[in-house]
Structure formats: structure tokens, C-alpha cells
Amino acid sequence: MSGTKTTETATTEAWWRQAVVYQVYPRSFADGNGDGIGDLAGILARLDHLVALGIDAVWLSPFYPSALVDGGYDVDDYMDVDPRIGTLDELDRLVAALHAHGIRVLVDLVPNHSSDRHEKFRAAVAAGPGSPERDLYVFRDGRGEHGELPPAEWSSLMGDPAWTQVPDGQWYLHLFTKEQPDWNWANPAVHAYFRDVLRFWGDRGVDGFRVDVANGLTKRLEADLPTQQELDTPGTFPVGDHPLFDRDDVQDVYREWRAVFDEYDPPLMAVAEAWVTPDRRLRYTASGGLDQAFGFDLLRGTWDSAVFRRIIEESYALAERAGVPATWVFSNHDVVRHATRYGLVGGGDENDWLLSRGAHPAEDRDLGLRRARAATMLALALPGSAYLYQGEELGLPEVMVPDEQRQDPVFWRKGGKEIGRDGCRVPLPWTKDGSSFGFGSGGAHLPQPDWFRHYAVDLQEQDPASTLHLYRRALALRRRLQADARLDWLELGDGVVAFRRPGGWCSVTNFGTAPVALPRATVLLASDVRGLHDGSLGPDTTVWLDLDGPAGTTQEA
Ligand code: GLC
Ligand code: CA
Q1: Are 90 and 98 spatial neighbours (Cβ–Cβ below 8 Å)?
Q2: Residue 557: pLDDT above 90?
Q3: For ligand 1, what atom is nearest to the CA of residue 176?
Q4: pTM of the complete model beyond 0.90
Q5: Which residue, judged by its Cα, is nearest atom 2 of ligand 1?
Q6: Which residue among 56, 74, 212, 363 is the active-site one?
Q7: Pick from 354, 401, 377, 403: which is nearest to 481 by CA?
Q8: Which of 82, 341, 407, 415 is most buried, most CB within 10 Å of its CB?
Q9: How many angstroms separate the alpha carbon of residue 484 from the centre of ligand 1?
């Protein structure tokens, strides 16, 4: 907790190096006041769930005042709480309550863009061209005789054009929706403002940040802007000098933040969301700035032993180079839940599945869940930090939200060419009965399907074989077994990924279709006990063994 330890340093034994961080998407976690939208009171009321899971930290997705054009990633005010979600006072109480249970808190920092309702953007529009206010954002004159054409024909990542005109004729840049204007990181005043934001949260006692679109921020916009095709074609610009993304000079921002982080004891931590190649990812942690960067490679990989093995080897090697253990992620609020991804059979991927509204590839829910449980146990045994997304501890599949009820601007602004991310943001089922399955007393802001009841927390509490109990056991064991961030491969045959951690902790995953023989050892936990037979491990199952313990085949509870 902030200020309680004096010897912790960022390089030796910092708490986050091998932590389990659980992502709460506040609007969909639990609704305390029955208006259909999750809130801080709801999280406080469900604190027991977080404590019982055995996580080290919670990452709170945005709770800031917002028009919710992009699920709260359009921030009106970085230093406040949306009244629909709660108050700063409640946030303080939530942080204190989590801290009292030894759980750290990360808040979501969105530095690439604000919302168009942010007071500084309003001021920028009001103050007019050439004003210091306007220079906080990326404004330009248009092309054409009267500036009636945008500075460039770029499209945003959300489908709409990337430049939008204001009444006086100038245009502003937004990599996401037009309601998310990009900050001008060439302006020192923007740097100063964000240092204030960091300190605002640091002083409030939070433990760190998840940095949204960390590969954005700095830009190089010269008089002549490149075309969209030039932007999109690899090799047009030297690596690290793309006009918009993953620029080398973004690390200067993070080095500056590091100085702020280090004002706190222990230092604040920060994890980067940067959708970049693994070798580029290294820069976000090895340049004296941020501490971690999400490793999205497993999240993008298929259920295949060779794929897992390659990704783990690569990430492990990079982690060694960075001097920072790797991070592992399967699910978050932006992707199809992994229990669904791993259950898609018969060719095609999750995008095909979304576009066909669930028709093909077919979804085999049992298979998906079995593999998701096996995958999660594998990752929890790896050195480094694991990031979990709310609902995965229930084995929740993705929901096929009806088109007309979708909220994600990606769906609406791309004219249905992309389906968007609502299906992983459906409010959680807490009870098998009752209004919105215990989410709240007043319905849910995204529709919960009837089958959600089968995944309810109260049902899973009573079932020792449930995914919820598996997560709790795995996290408790991991806490006990976690040692140096080292891994030694074990070769147990084709289709098997097996490794040993210091102290004899060993994880074996069978990706194949036939059972594989296990070494003689104590069984600590299996992702599915049905996969364990007379010293062999069935398909799509992970088992943790204690290689240094007495041989035996009973599972520890
Ligand atoms: C990040 C967020 C995503 C959001 C985008 C723009 O990728 O995870 O949800 O839409 O940034 O802020
Ligand atoms: Ca509410």
C-alpha cells in the first residue's frame, strides 16, 4: 500500500512483478442503486468476491464523467467520478477497503485523447485559431480553397474520418471517434496537465495506472501529411518514426512520468496498453518509463501447443532482456472472451463468428470452457503477471448482443463491418434468479441472455468443480508457490506444453487429442479432474504438479 513499505524498489521486489491483476469494468460489474449501470457502490457491495478470488490488484476501467460514446474512454474530467458511477468519496472508500485486504488499485489513464466535453477542449474550440487553448489539441487548417477539405483523408480507428471541422473552419485530429479529440503532446502544457493528473491519483492513494493507447500520444505532423495508404503500409516510415503510432519519442513522456511515479513510496506502477510487436513492446518497459506492457500475443494466438510454446519462449526472452517479468492476458473489455474463442470449431475466427451473428464457425461451449480453464492455469503458472478480466473467473462466454442493442461505436460507425465489443461487456450474473441475475434491481444496460443464470456466482459457489472455485484454488496455490521468475521447459511429447518453476512447481498442458503420460508427482490442481486418469492427462487439460513432493495422484483441495 502506498507509504507503508520503505524498502521496496522498482527493480528488485516491487509488488507488481508477478501479480495477478483483475480488471473491473465498473459499468458492468455490479449495480448498487438499481439504475441498470454498474457503480462504485456495487463494487463495494461485492468486495467479498474480489477478496475471495485472491487477486493482488484491481484495475478499474474508466469511471470518469463521460458521455459514454466509447464506454468511458471518452473522458470529460480526469479528476472526478461520473455521478452515475459514484463520487470521489466512494472511490476513496473503495480504495481504502481494497487496501485493507491487501489489494492494490490501478486506475485507467487515457492520455492520447480526452472527450470533446472536456473543459480544455471546449475552451480550445471557443478560443479560436492560434490561441494557446487551441494548441492543447491537434488543430489544423483544412485544404481546398476555403479550407473546406480535411487536412488529410484519414479514417479513425472507429470508422469515422480522423479529422473533424469546428465552426470557425479549423479541423482537429482524433484517432478514435470525433468525440475523442487527441491531445497535442508537442505542447509542454499538456505534459504539465498530465503530471497533475498523475499526482491527483497518487495523492489519493492509488497504486498505479493502466495507460490507454500508450503507443499513441506523440505525433509527427509536418506541413505535408501522408496519405492513409502511406500510414498503413509497413516500411513507409522508419521504425519508431511513424507519424501517429509507437514513436520512439513517446518514451520521453514516460520517462517524465517515471519521475512523478518515483515521488511515491513505493513508486506508482504503470502498465502500457500498446498493440505493438513484441520487440517494440520492450521499449515500453526498458526505457526508464513504464513498468509493464500487456503481452497480447497469447490473446491473439490459437489453441495450439506450438503457438503457445513459441509465444512463451519469445515473451520470456524479451522479459529477460527488459529485466521485467512478462505479462499474460487472454481477455479484456476489447476482445471476444477466451471461453468463446477457444470453442470456435470448423474454420474461421471470432471475427467471422461475430459477423455471422454466431452462425459460423460453430461455438462449442464445453470445449471452449475446457480450453479456457486449461489456458488460464497454464498462464497462471508462468513467471510474470497475469491480467484477468471480470467474468472470466465464471467461465463466461461472449454474448451475441442483438444489433439494435449494441452500444459500441465501432459497430455503428463502421456500418456493421465490425461488430464491436459489447458481447464481453454484458453485466455479470451474480445470482441464478432475480432481476438481472443479481447485477442490480433495475435491469442491465446491456441485455443478459437467459443462459447467463448457469454461470451465476451463487451457483458456482456451491459447485466445487466450478470455474470460480478453480480460479480461487489456482490463485491461492500460485501465491504459495510463486518464486523467482524462472522457467525450465520439460519435454513431454508432441502437443504438450510443460515447464517447471523453482521449487518443483510444474505445469503440464495437453493440447492434443490423446492422453499423455505424466511424470510421477503430487497432483496439486487440474483444470478439469475428468482429464486425470491413472497418471495420464487428457486433452485440453492443464495440471499442476509438485515434482519435489511425494508421488501420488490425489488432488489437493
Ligand atoms: C483502448 C481501450 C478501448 C478504447 C480505446 C480508445 O484500446 O481499451 O476500449 O476504445 O483505447 O480509448
Ligand atoms: Ca448504478
Answers
A1: no
A2: no
A3: 6
A4: yes
A5: 212
A6: 212
A7: 377
A8: 341
A9: 33
